[in-house]
Amino acid sequence: MGTDFFQYVVSGLTIGAIYAMVAIGYNIIYSVTEIINFAQGEFVMLGGLFAVFFAGPLHLPLYLAFVCAVALTGCVGLAMDRFVIGQARNTSVLSLIIITIAVSIILKGSAMLWWGKDPYSLPAFSSGGPIKIAGVSIQPQALWIIGICTLVVVGLTLFFRKSIYGKAMLACADNPNAARLAGIPVRYMVFLSFILSAAIGAAAGVIITPVSMMEYDRGALLGLKGFGAAALGGLGQFFGALVAGILLGLAESLCAGYLSSGYKDAVALVLLLLALFLKPEGLFGSSEAAKLKRF
Amino acid sequence: MGRKNWLVLLGAALFISVFPWLVTPFKAVSHYVDVMVFAGIFSLVSIGLSLLMGYAGQISLAQAAFFGIGAYTSGILTSKFGVNPWIAMPAGMVVCAAVAWLVGMPALRLKGHYLAMATLGFGVIVNIVFAEEVNWTGGPSGMVDIPGLRIAGHKINSEFAWYYLVWGTVFLALIFCFHLLQSRVGRALRAIHEEEKAAESVGVPTARYKVRVFILGAVLAAIAGSLYTHYVTCLNPSSFNLMWSMKFMLMVMVGGMQSLWGALVGTILMTFVGNEWLQVFAELEILVYGMILLVVALFLPGGIVSLPSWRPRRKKPAAVVGDA
Amino acid sequence: MSSSGLDIGGPILEMHDLGMRFGGVAALQSVDYSVPVGIIQAVIGPNGAGKTTLFNCISGMLEPTDGSIVFDGRGIVGLAPHRIAESGIARTFQHVALFKKMTVLENVMLGRHPRSRSGFFATGLRWPGMRREEKLIREKAFEYLDLVGLAQCAGVEAGTLPLGKQKILEIARALATEPRIVLLDEPAGGLNMKETEELGELIQAVRGRGVTVMLVEHDMNLIMEISDRILVLHYGQVLASGTPSEIKDNGAVIEAYLGEEGQE
Fold first, then answer.
1. Radius of gyration, CA atoms only, chain C
2. Contact, A169 vs A159, CB < 8 A?
3. How far is it, in rounded angstroms, from Cα B55 to Cα B324?
4. Which residues contact A61 (CB under 8 A, 6 or more apart)?
């Protein structure tokens, strides 16, 4: 115990914040369309690699690279909705799953073509060595990650609860026809959700890259763990996603520290399976509502 | 279905049995026999998946994991414990069936998206185990020196012998599945896919049937895994990863998921695409797979076997798949 | 055959204090009722009165939130729908739920599911017993097709039948499970006069075979003609019950229906 433990907690919080952001990406698309986007993890990967591209070869300052990467990934999300999901209206759940899987494979394949198989890194957002508190060293980047994640969660919760756009987006999932009758442009809301979700995924990708690097095939696992957080927190629950993401991050980091680093990736997945099997509606979702969901 | 299907089966069997004699005289294509051995092995895996996707309306991204469990069970039993491969194979089937039962029981109660994610998660976990249990599996660097197969004391070492062994197994599996589909059980499965509530109302235990199809798919994958192990005599976790689960899904989709023939056609085609034609563009491989999957899912949901009756996009795509 | 001279037997289906809530909405509320064996029991009521919900509770598609259902002396709440079907309760659906891409014969053969047993191994390996059973299933299915008069369409894809015949086919499929009670949810919905008349005869023939019939229906002529007992639901509660002639003169029922018509 002691400093080791707190060290693991810090890194668990950091990685947990990332999972929470990925989970929020799932939640946004799910809230509006009831689709689970299997390509969500690829947005994270793209965000990281785009930022590498803007900061590296294009020599943009880091904050600009961040903005550009997020914007560009948002465009990828938009393209995915316009050219793929938009083509597949009225198809069954099975087809939608397969279609989003296909998109994820395409994004991964394109990334491999462009960047090859090597991992890339980014400089940390703020220079300077780790901060030492009672023997525990905290990378400044970890603070950035936790800060940005908190900002995103608070911002989105406010957006969906308070703003007219946010409420309109949620109405689309509840009952698209009623939403249409109420004058909400459902189509527009759907692609807004794809842009937003891709952008948040990308932001997660950019902020994690200085800590753990990024390569073309990281998307699937990040996506899967993010989904674990989303499912554990209750699909569509933003606050639940945050708590569950951090729980997964802590579990993973403590397992890596005390048990076996090889199995650290399995921990989050085992928790995902347990959550799905034992409490499919999630820790913070209501089982009443889960029964009414179409998928 | 009945008679026509048996005629197709006969035709296919004939073609498959003369195939090696057709290609071996020509140097450029003589290695197609080897490719077809792999296609046969993969067919066993995709037939099981096709039953699950096309007939029970469920999606599984764990098929490569079961393929791997079958392969490693055979590999470990034969090379570390000196067990006869012909005993190791059924052992692998039993292990797969047990694991599929354990995972399938809770997982198949889940609806569409959740089920896909659960099988995906399970598949990744299994792959991590393959990579981590170095003492048993050799870890990421793999496992070598696995014995080959013997029949009555004779080592099966020619490609021809393997070809007929594998394809004989494939046809036995096909016949089993056709019999299954044209019976009480098959009717129940199709009923579940078409109208789950109505199926329950006439006494079909839908959950149990889904689990059993899942188990059947896992057992077929185990047979495939065992054959694979003894054919290539070395194993590596990367042959059983997520990408492979997706490839099996691609094979089923390309051929057409409502027909076992679709699985067979799709698997042979995609094995050739992967082993032969894509070798030239190794860098493009993943991208090409993704493109094919997307195009098929969007524009040809019935796969190749539906081509004869294909019409340009209907407004509402034919109900190819039920709510999973 | 009118209801007046009917010899009422013991109850085959009893509902005790049955309730079904969806969130805050009570679709059924303290329903206490017994269906006597061997009769045609109609369930009527304005739209949204809880008739289909009642059927869904009995057939296990919904688990009631309160109370119990006793079938043939045995509590069935909480049993899976397929178990309930096995135990002898069959049903049809308000919106026809046939296996549309399968043939008419196959649809009825599926009805034989709870009365046959070959599993994955037996069917995959074509065991001799399984072949015999398959032949038996086919014969039985033809019997039920004959009963409803659809034998000549046996090889036709079910989805291509006209609606009237689809409804009849659904009844044949339900009967093939050899139920002791069959629940028919609006069997006359969408049928023309002649078809409705034939349906009435079929339902009486079913009772003649000793199967209790429970039906939800809006066609009052049909109900008054064939049913032995009528249960009237209103806002999820029992408003009245009795023979057709008793119900005809019941003031509360008339009011409920007039109220309903006034709104429409």
1. 19
2. no
3. 11
4. A55
pLDDT tens-place string over residues B130-170: 999 999 898 898 898 888 888 877 888 888 999 999 999 99
DSSP SS3 for B169: helix
Pairing of strands A136-138, A131-133: antiparallel
C-alpha B315/C-alpha B297 separation (Å) is: 15
Sign (positive or negative) of CA dihedral C8, C13, C14, C18: negative
Any chains having at least 3 CB pairs less than 8 A from chain B are A, C
- Tokens 């450029």 — which residue? B28
| Residue among B116, B129, B156 nearest B73 (CA) | B129
**Residue C189's CB: how many other CB atoms inside 10 A?**
16
DSSP state of A130: P
User: What type of residue is C101?
Assistant: K
Residue A32 CA to residue A39 CA, distance in Å, equals: 16
The alpha carbon of residue A266 and the mean position of all alpha carbons in its chain are separated, in whole angstroms, by: 18
Q: How far apart are CA A43 and CA A77, in angstroms?
A: 8
- Residues 6+ positions from C152 with CB-CB distance below 8 Å: none
Q: Which two tokens stand for residue B48?
A: 């099981």
Which residue from B minimizes the CA distance to C106?
B187
Q: Name residue, tokens 């896919």.
A: B193
- Asked if the Cβ–Cβ distance from B201 to C109 is below 8 Å, we say no
Question: Chain A contacts of B289, Cβ < 8 Å?
Answer: 105, 109
In whole angstroms, give the CA distance from residue B156 to residue C39.
71
Would you say the C-alpha torsion B303, B307, B309, B314 has a positive or negative sign?
positive
**B211-234 confidence digits (pLDDT tens):** 999 999 999 999 999 999 999 999
ipTM: 0.90
Q: How many residues comprise chain B?
A: 324
Cα–Cα distance measured from residue C81 to residue C90, given in angstroms and rounded to the nearest whole number: 10
Strand C11-22 and strand C66-71: the pairing is antiparallel
Tell me the residue type at B258: Q
- Interface of C to B at Cβ within 8 Å reads 59-61, 80-82, 85-86, 90-91, 93, 97-102, 106, 109-114, 116, 118-120, 123-126, 130, 133-134, 137, 173-174, 176-177
SS3 of C228, please? Answer: coil
Q: Residue A187 and residue B316: Cα distance in Å, rounded?
A: 18
* Dihedrals phi, psi of B167, to nearest 5 degrees: -70, -30
- Check if the beta carbon of residue A109 is closer than 8 Å to that of residue A42: no
Coil vs helix vs strand at B313:
coil
The structure tokens listed for C190 are 């969408």
Return the C-alpha torsion angle A7, A11, A12, A13, nearest 10.
110
pLDDT tens per residue across all 295 residues of chain A: 578 899 999 999 999 999 999 999 999 998 888 888 999 999 999 999 999 999 988 899 999 999 999 999 999 999 999 899 888 766 788 888 899 999 999 999 999 999 999 999 999 888 878 888 878 888 889 999 999 999 998 888 888 888 888 888 888 877 777 888 888 888 888 888 999 999 999 999 999 999 999 999 999 999 999 999 998 888 888 888 899 999 999 999 999 988 888 888 899 899 889 888 888 777 776 554 544 444 4
Q: Is C23 exposed, middle or buried (0-12, 13-18, 19+ CB in 10 A)?
A: exposed
